[in-house]
TrEMBL record:
A Gene Ontology BP annotation from the UniProt entry: transmembrane transport
Domain of life (superkingdom): Bacteria
Region (Disordered): 1-22
Gene3D superfamilies, per the entry: MetI-like
Similarity-based family: Belongs to the binding-protein-dependent transport system permease family.
GO cellular component: plasma membrane
Subcellular location(s) per record: Cell membrane
Pfam families: BPD_transp_1
Protein name: ABC-type dipeptide/oligopeptide/nickel transport system permease subunit
Keywords assigned: Cell membrane, Membrane, Transmembrane, Transmembrane helix, Transport
Membrane spanning residue stretches: 27-49, 93-117, 124-145, 151-171, 206-235, 255-277
Amino acid sequence: MHPVETATAPVPQAGPDPRAAPSRGRLGTVLASCWLGIVVLGAAASALLPGLDPLRADFSAILQPPSARHWLGTDAIGRDILARTLAGGRSSLIVGAMTVAFGLVAGGFLGIVAGYLRGVVDGAVGILTDLILAFPALILIMAIVSLSGAGYWTIGLLIGGLSIPAFARLARAATISVREHDYVQAARNMGAGPLRIMRTEIIPNVLPAIGAYSFAAVTASIVVEGSLSFLGFGLQPPLPSWGNLIAEGRSHFATAPWITAAPALTLCATVLSVNVLGQALSKGRP
């Protein structure tokens, strides 16, 4: 007699949990939202609370390391680094908001009009965006700032103007896709004019794509503003900016690295958080 062979069923291998990636994504979104909330609240507090005055100097606490009295230390004339970092966030948020507002409105309008009307209008908008892209952005901003001076309006409008081509091309591509849908054709057959169709049918369906890109525009504006301030062509002291705070700490980096580290790390964390939220919005993840 032959021994009875018993068949053993294969043991299923444990695969990756499909819920792990969404959970990590939601955690990143929550952390990014919390960080940006802290930055916004800190920027508002620095403008409202006298105890967070970024210009108040304490000559008895010059170049002090982080302590219970000064959580992030002090600079070369005794100014609190925490107060100055929070105030620098206010400058970056103002410039970022102005950039998105101007770039989205102007670029979105041009892109929607070009994408819906096509023809000569589309060609003219294309030439305009190519002209803007033809100028070296950093050199152009430096030249204008040198002539007119630096301020929130100057920096915000300049960076916003340079973001118009990106918004216009994105809005144009989305409009070309939307204008062929049945509901647009139905509105056109019912006698609706171009302005009404763009207002009621095109804009509501194009805004989500532009809104997702706005996060990328905010990060770019924060980095550009910080770079200009670092080079001395952005917001000028006494207006605090993350860029000029980093520049101020260069000469004391060996002995007081906290002067540069605090605004630099805050800038990096803010840019990362805005990017995380932008990616979550583009993927439709809460």
